[in-house]
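== Folding task for one protein ==

=== Format: two labelled lines per protein ===

==== Paired sequence and structure tokens ====
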Amino acid sequence: MSEYSAAMSILKVAKMAGVTHGTVSRLINSRGGVSEATAQRIRKAMAKLGYRPKPPEQRRGKTARPAGLHTGNVCLLLVGAPREVLDRPGISTTVATLEAELRRRGLSLFLAQTGSLKDLPPCVSRRKADGLLLTGEACDAEPAAYRSLPAVWLLSSHTQPHKWADHVLPDNERIGAMAAEYLAARGHRLVAFYNDQPKHPGFAVRGAAFCAAARERGMECQSFVAETPGPGLVWGFGPNAACVKLVERLLAAAPKPQAVFVPTDEQVLRLYPLLARHSVVPGRDLGILSCDNQEVWLRQLDPRPPSIDLNFELIGRRAVEQLMSRIAHPEQPPGTRILVPPKPIETAQEMSNIR
């Protein structure tokens, strides 16, 4: 049946059942919001007219929508962070993937913000969405209202206590181990972990895994972590006093590291000018391996460091898949934790500063 014929059939069914064509569409696409009495009238009209719609998964390549949908909306809830955080390259890639994956399923994504989980946004208090995708750094106790909506936290490493939601996160242990493997394969025996954001738990996991994997390979590994928090995740790239002191500790180390692993490209942008103050040239004097692989930042660096790709698109796809599963199977207990592996470091990234 052609798309035009299908549309005409839906209109005939709607007219015979005494409903709108949108109501018929919601029923045959399992979108919810149709009473049982109305559904019975529509099915009788379909039977009389001989209309048998294709299953949703066979229509124009769309994925079947799960049961349990009522609004057709999913809320992306930004918790404890400003709107600007969504402009960060990796997060913007993830959000674009979320929107595309939901659109493919016939769902809409809208954004809401809250400073705290205790401040209920309308998408939760008024059930304006069929499910929640959450990101941010707030980790206060949640109200019982959140337990009534399927929810998936993504990207944030501060959310493990929230047992009412599932979690889709970068595999930070694998990231750290990959960094050690990469440097070991290039003959480095004196390495270090550098981190100017000590309160970020994901970075701490990367560092611990990196040092453990390095030592397992017979490498000497030092850890240089700021004693006080450096710049936050959003507030620019200018180095502060904590970063200055951290670099001084790094360069005064004995033995001096041959290469350092930095847990995010943003920190490398702060590190390069501080190294230049001491006439230290990345690549010639100190190798740099970064993480996130965000070209918009890396292209500003000379030489451009190799950087581990967190697989932001896959994080977005996994988050949508998990939310759809949670919506379709509300009886399943929440708390699933999905770790997304990083992409292998591409050979093309291997610039002169890691040899």
The longest helix spans residues 312-328. The chain is about 35% helix and 15% strand. Residues 172-309 form a domain with the Rossmann fold fold (CATH 3.40.50.2300). The first strand starts at residue 73 and ends at 79.
